[in-house]
Design goal:
With 261 residues, the protein is of the alpha/beta class. It contains eight helices and eleven strands. The protein has helices at 2-5, 27-39, 59-74, 90-98, 150-158, 173-182, 217-223, 250-260; strands at 11-12, 18-21, 51-55, 104-107, 111-112, 117-118, 121-124, 141-147, 165-169, 187-190, 211-212. The strands form three sheets. A seven-stranded mixed β-sheet has the order 4-7-8-3-2-9-10. Helix 2 (27-39) links the parallel strand 2 (18-21) and strand 3. Helix 2 crosses helix 3 and helix 5 (150-158) packs parallel to helix 6. The radius of gyration is 26 Å and the shape is elongated. It starts with a helix and ends with a helix. The mean pLDDT is 94.
């Protein structure tokens, strides 16, 4: 539709937004903020944490804290919680439930077709060959993967489609810079999830298959406005050098235009 009218366009898509939890992360706080990001609208946001790469040295501790935070937020029976959303349609309910088939569920896994309820679910021993890693989840499932070398994780993620968002938890400034400077993604947070979209001073948009262009705040104005270039000249003087015939003036004209550029 935009092409027919030759309109400017920004395209926000989505993708599998990764979370990396490094060995020096404040584990309890990281689990709390990741759980919040995943539970927000039952994971049905384009920038929801899609999967977690957690350092193998803290994986067990992190998992315990994550389960604790799910329970703290929604109680022992999340189906009864007034703070927990339902899946938007029958089609997506069936799609999300199917992603758990033949996978190792270490927490959650319950569902109810009657009210499109899917319990917050943590899956372990996931690989990139798993079905759940082949598409954006857009639901309350959280696959866990482990790592021991951050550059290798970044290299692995960069081989996949570029995500709309990415999140890093850790305290080492050198590792933060490595994450920011070598991982391709649209936008994200250090030591939090989702909140980058709430700051209207920050551009929001994707890269590659997660989208093109950006919007929010001044960036929206720039995106959908035409920046018109105008040169205004005075009329009190006119240099004849630029006008033909050039003859012996040609070298001077070339010098003049080099200077202008």
């Amino acid at each position: 539709a935009a092409a027919e009218q030759l309109c400017p366009v920004t395209l926000e898509l989505g993708g599998k937004s990764p979370v990396i939890v490094d060995k020096d992360a404040k584990v309890a706080l990281a689990a709390k903020r990741i759980a919040w990001g995943k539970l927000f609208n039952a994971g049905q946001t384009c920038i929801a944490p899609d999967y977690v790469y957690v350092h193998k040295s803290i994986k067990e501790t992190f998992t315990k804290h994550l389960i604790k935070e799910f329970k703290a937020a929604l109680g022992e029976n999340s189906q009864e919680s007034l703070d927990y959303a339902r899946i938007v349609s029958q089609k997506h309910f069936e799609r999300i439930v199917a992603l758990t088939k033949n996978e190792e569920i270490i927490y959650g896994g319950k569902s109810s077709v009657k009210d499109h309820y899917i319990e917050p679910t943590i899956l372990d021993n996931i690989t990139w060959d798993s079905k759940i890693m082949q598409e954006e989840i857009f639901g309350p499932l959280l696959p866990l993967l482990s790592f021991d070398d951050l550059p290798h994780v970044i290299e692995t993620i960069n081989k996949k489609d570029k995500p709309l968002s990415a999140y890093y938890f850790g305290e080492n400034n050198k590792m933060k810079e490595l994450f920011l400077n070598t991982l391709y993604f649209g936008g994200g947070c250090i030591n939090d999830t989702i909140l980058h979209i709430t700051n209207k001073n920050l551009p929001f948009g994707g890269i590659g298959k997660s989208g093109i262009g950006a919007y929010q705040g001044a960036k929206s104005f720039d995106c959908f406005s035409h920046h018109k270039g105008i040169l205004k000249r005075g009329t009190w003087m006119d240099v004849p050098l630029r006008y033909a015939p050039y003859k012996s003036k040609i070298s001077l004209v070339k010098t003049l235009f080099k200077f202008i550029k």
